[in-house]
Specification:
The complex is a heterodimer. By secondary structure, chain A is of the alpha+beta class. Helices cover 26% and strands 35% of the residues of chain A. In chain A, strand 3 and strand 4 form a beta hairpin. Chain B is built from 22 helices and no strands. The chains are: A alpha+beta, B mainly alpha. At the A-B interface, helix 2 of A face helix 5 of B.
């Protein structure tokens, strides 16, 4: 079953600053976690996201496209990246998500992707 | 209800949790499992309303429920390939567990207590799926409407299904994180059976039995966890008093007034032995402390033999783990027994000005009783009134109102 893991930065928690050895360690941890998931065959996709300043939102209403600068909602929390995992159940997903550094420096929201009949 | 039917109901309800657990595990669908067991249960009562019960009620219930569920799945599979896939997954779903024989009820209770489910719903879910209480009964004890409780249960079951929360016992390295939640729920199921609530006596007895069964399973799973052993000991020692707790008219009999010859000696013996095992592991905790308190009461042949000094010490230790009105009140009572009511009052006075404590009717009731014993009738009256104003449950309200009416009427001022 597929799960989308949204990596969320929490405003009261600062991750390591770029350039510090802690930052390098964090990047390395991301790498090894991702590699382990790929080797286990549970990784479908993953990636870091450009910050919210780079976001664009589009809404179509009455045939008219409304494009605005910025994310869909002004949140304190920033979505920084994502993983799509294919696991047997929630527990397996939680075990892998715990290895993603974002869990230590923020939060990871895990959403099951609805299974369409054709995917069963 | 005729006698044979009442026995049939008890016998089959005892197997309820195991049947739900097994069918839930096979189908991965808790709602489906519940419905199937509900129907099988009704069929069982129908079939064995009069006359002797089958040799293996559990087997009968499980077989009928499982077939019921699989039939339902096959019907739905014709409509949706998703259910078909679910049935195919039956073989693959469960990675092999190291212990070949794991009671399905353990799998179910760990699922009910999964941290991904709203924590406030864990007990309700356990009462429904493991103990077979109706939504109406659960709603009554939580003091919410039946519709609200039904919605909470549906939401939880949907979460289990949509997020694929598995029916499995956590691996050894995961157990420490998960066991606390399960112990809490088993304790609450027992409390639900133990206290005076809206459910009939028979149902409440079954809840205590189910809680003890679950506690035994947990002790088998974690034989070296002193708090798991502590909980089992606590439940056994407390349940030992069951035969003496209620008068024929349903009125609750206070501990100090109970006929101790009715206490279950076998339960007391077993509970005490298990508590000893826990204590030897030298890792104290709240369940062990509560068990030790229950053991103190159990050891006293007469109420007057009770080692109140020891109980006071134990409540003091317990207070370091949890600051609840019950702990404070009981400590005050114990101290009062050893040093007199004034000393007990002093304990309660430590809480004066604590906003939360002022809202606990039990503390006002306890103060009232100590004041009454000191002959300070006017203050006692105020305290009883304060307790009643906080809307205690009916049985307690009756008791408090009775005490209030027994206070000497103030003499008219001359």
């Amino acid at each position: 079953m597929r799960y989308l893991c949204l990596l969320v930065g929490e405003p009261d928690l600062e991750g390591p600053a770029p350039g510090t050895p802690e930052f390098t360690q964090m990047l390395s941890d991301y790498g090894s976690a991702t590699q382990a998931m790929a080797a286990a065959g549970v990784l479908v996709d993953s990636g870091p996201l450009q910050p919210a300043g780079s976001a664009t939102t589009i809404r179509v209403r009455d045939g008219e496209s409304l494009v605005t600068d910025g994310p869909f909602a002004e949140l304190k929390e920033q979505i920084g990246g994502y993983y799509v995992l294919d696991c047997a159940d929630l527990d397996e997903t939680l075990r892998w998500a715990a290895t993603i550094p974002a869990a230590r420096f923020g939060a990871i929201e895990i959403r099951p992707v609805m299974m369409m009949p054709e995917q069963a | 209800m005729s006698e044979p039917s009442a026995t049939a109901e008890t016998v089959f309800r005892r197997e309820w949790g195991r049947a739900v657990a097994l069918v839930a595990r096979l189908t991965g669908n808790l709602g489906l499992a519940e419905d199937a067991v509900q129907e099988a249960f009704a069929a069982a009562l129908d079939r064995w309303a009069d006359g002797p019960l089958p040799r293996d009620p559990a087997g009968w219930l499980i077989t009928v429920a499982r077939n019921q569920a699989l039939d339902q799945l096959r019907r739905e599979a014709r409509r949706s390939r998703k259910e078909e896939a679910a049935m195919r997954m039956l073989g693959e779903r469960d990675p092999p567990q190291p212990e070949l024989i794991v009671d399905d009820r353990l799998r179910l209770i760990f699922a009910c207590c999964h941290p991904a489910i709203d924590r406030g719903t864990h007990v309700a879910l356990a009462l429904r799926t493991l103990c077979g209480l109706t939504t109406a009964q659960i709603a009554r004890s939580f003091l919410v409407s039946e519709a609200a409780m039904a919605q909470r249960l549906v939401r939880a079951k949907r979460k289990i299904r949509d997020a694929a929360i598995p029916f499995r016992v956590p691996a050894d390295h995961e157990l420490p994180d998960r066991i606390g939640g399960v112990l809490r729920v088993v304790y609450l199921v027992f409390t639900e059976g133990h206290r005076a609530s809206a459910s009939p006596r028979q149902v409440r007895g079954e809840l205590c039995d189910e809680a003890i069964r679950l506690a035994r399973l947990l002790a088998g799973l974690c034989p070296d966890d002193p708090e798991v052993l502590g909980l089992l000991a606590l439940l056994l020692l407390t349940d030992a008093r069951r035969p003496a707790r209620e008068a024929a008219d349903g009125r609750l009999i206070l501990l100090e007034d109970q006929d101790r010859s009715l206490w279950d000696a076998a339960r007391i013996g077993e509970g005490t032995r298990i508590l000893d095992r826990a204590t030897r592991l030298r890792r104290p905790g709240p369940y062990q402390l509560q068990a030790a308190i229950a053991a103190c009461h159990a050891a006293a042949g007469e109420s007057s033999d009770t080692d109140w000094a020891e109980i006071a010490v134990l409540y003091s230790a317990l207070g370091r783990y949890e600051s609840s009105p019950v702990v404070h009140a009981n400590r005050a009572v114990a101290v009062a027994k050893v040093e007199g009511p004034a000393a007990g009052l002093a304990i309660l006075d430590e809480l004066r000005g604590d906003g939360r404590a002022e809202g606990w009717h039990l503390l006002h009731a306890c103060r009232a009783d100590l004041l009454r014993r000191l002959g300070r009738a006017a203050e006692a009256r105020d305290a009883y009134r304060a307790a009643l104003a906080l809307d205690p449950p009916p049985a307690e309200r009756e008791f408090l109102a009775g005490r209030l009416s027994e206070l000497p009427v103030p003499s008219p001022k001359g």
